Here is the input.
Amino acid sequence: MENVRGSRPDPGLKPQHLAAVEVVADLCGAAVDGADLDSDTVTFRPGDDRRSAVATDIGTAGSVTLLFDTVLPIAVTTDEPLLLTVSGGTDVKWSPTVGYHRWVKLPLLSRWGLEADIDLLATGFYPAGGGRAVLRTTPSTLAPIELDRRGALERVDVYSTAAAVLEDRNVAARQAAHAKDELEEAGFTTEVQRVAYPETRSPGSSLLLRGVYEHTMTGVDALGERGRTSEAVAEGAVERFVALHETGAPVDEHMADQVMVFLALAGGRVRLPRVTDHVRTNLDLLAAFGGDIALTEHQDGSATLRASPHPAIE
Here is the structure.
């Protein structure tokens, strides 16, 4: 793999990317060249050994879910259960929160046979990190993924978290209550599922809105920021959820690119709200590894991905 993250202002492997390479190398006894910080070229030669349990510490607030995303596809191509324990950032920018994985991604993919769950042991916000979570997978057989319709919206679930040091300001409760008020004013049946104040190394907050539809789930998450009120965090998340709902798409734009590797493995079709740069990048990447995915763009800006099963799991 060459020119790793070449278009980014800080190209090459960063701590979470390096940890992902090392985790998969440990799982399959790989020989790896270029597994260094800032390396832009990596050669990865899988070995014959197999391990079922790996633990790693990213060492920063790097994304825990990035490592989970790296390992999840292995669960549908291996005959052994996997256990991955990761320390780092659980609720950080530019990546899905652990809550998004726990309450949107894994429940959605379980409908097509992926068997996995996450235990959250500690929450980690930027910059100190310190979060810790465990991914458990069992051997899974994926059915073709059919995500081209969503059906009626049953409800919107609200999950709100803030560091324990923010409990006296009711940050998580205010995020949840304001999101519920805004959603109900927009006409959505809403349930607050969780308000939590875990002990963390850095102050911070996160909010997840999960749309539960007849045939699918969608998710919108948001992070609190210094100088931004809990109500503003909630309003931003609700605005994005309403915009997503109005597209009629059965997946949110982030799930659109995350589901692509499973689509390439099992086959099927997925309708996307729009084609992002991540979707186009994943199309090229999956094609390089034998994936057969066709993209059809529609006049309304949405698109459909169709795939045949990959030989690796046929």
